[in-house]
Protein: DUF262 domain-containing protein
Organism: Agromyces salentinus
Amino acid sequence: MAKYQVTQSAVTQLLEDVRREHIAIPELQRPFVWDSVKVRDLMDSLYKGYPVGYLITWQSVGAHLKGGQVAAHQQILIDGQQRITALRAAVAGLKVINKRYKQIRITIAFNPVTEEFATLTPVIAKNPEWISDISELFTANSTYTFVKSYFEANGNIDHAAVEANIARLEGIKNAQIGIIALADDLDVETVSEIFIRINSKGVPLSSADFAMSKIATYGDRGRNLRKLIDYFCHLAVAPHAFADIQENDSEFAASKFISAISWLKDDAEDLYDPAYGDVIRVAGLLGFSRGRASSIVSELSGRDPETRKVDESRIPVAYDKLEAALLQIVKKYHYENFIMLIKSAGFIAPDMVGSKNALNFAYALYLRLRADDSMSEGERKRIVRRWFVMSMLTGRHSGSFEGTWEQDIRRISAQGAAEYLTQIEESDLSDGFWQVSLPNSLETTSTVSPFFQAFLAAQVATGVRGFLSKSITIAAMHQQSGDIHHIVPKDYLQKNGFPDRADYNQVANFALTETSINISISNKPPAGYLAEVEAQIGSGRLTLGEITDADELQRNFVENAIPSRLAALTAEEYPEFLQERRKLMANVIRSYYEKL
């Protein structure tokens, strides 16, 4: 059976199909990313008969049109949104949505004497030789009258040539554009593979893109659910855009969904700013117990996961589940409490979390556990905290994670979250992990390594102070001014047999410290700068930091997992120092994890 068919459609027929929603273009409600120059170039290519690429559509089952009808054969446009939007703007004279979610015109002018296209400017508007807005020709009742008016305004021109050029411009309405229509029984993975192979740019089309397109086909409700996802993600990053959305999207502003995200206009948190793909994934886990974004497309298409057959009665139920999940996800109380929960585990800054998927699953788990009335809030938080940190340490949500997600959700549902988490810990966080695997994993120069970030999170969560600091905590340094300091300075190591970055930039040679302390240490070896600290302990005269007590210095060493023999360290002993510190860092992480 053919996986697709190729057809040609005239520009005017294509625009009519879009107007009647026979072809659904969800992107019409999103900001138009092309600039006016690209719109101009598209018109010029059509005028000259150049190819403008294929549009790619995919069959949608159970799509709802305006007026309540259900379309049996609606196509979702999955590639070509910007070209269609540009045609609507230039040919039909319709407005586009700008970055402020305001409707604006992009007006393309044409000079039939020189055969040039241009974006309309005040100078062009005053020049009668230019047709200021080509859409006026395409929508004119009489081409004869239009041409006559042009000749009246431009006497000294070659009428025959100009008339031929205007006719050629009008011929854009009949220009043929190729459409690749993918079969309706293809699964999302196959559609994505076809898309990549026939798309000259080689740009992957994600399952989340399919899901967003599919969601928007369900009438007003679907469009607003899609906007709910889009606007939630946009406002999490740019809260100021709320006023623009409220002012310029009357349909969404009149829906019940705008109140659900209005709180974001005052949001300043940036620890977890999900993209729409992240929201889709969380909604899949929460509403459908499915880990793949493509599974949401199947659910919204009425496809029975057991029989693989379409049952249209399943579609409204799927949208009910999706809406319920989304409203849980965007709820202010849930979102803010989840952020506080993650921060309570010590992950207080975005750059500490290298895996967005770890956050996604943890948020879905938190929301699912909220439905368990038998579980206390304290137990719920304990499980989510430990799950999140466990997943960071084990890379549970990296690679081909979707299958793991679905397995985890099934087992959490069957066994209970606490019991299943304990099972994972016994398997993946055994003594061998803490004593061997984790120290070995800390043998890295990457400061964004999840293992080093887990160490810093452990320090934040336990409230410890920076290296050689008397009162400034690691948490305060994350939020204000702190440096990652070489415990054994780089310059000293380079001059004493360790010239390679892989040696001196080991994370086991790093500690967070105050900028002023880092500057004071400079390139002194440990024996040198610790001698200054010892001197101030005896004299009370501060020269490096503020520690003036020997016991306090030792406590600071313990808090920062630094071997006590640092002051006597020689360059030859540096490798043993790194090995010893990695074990101490692993012990800090283990102690912290067990107390979560």
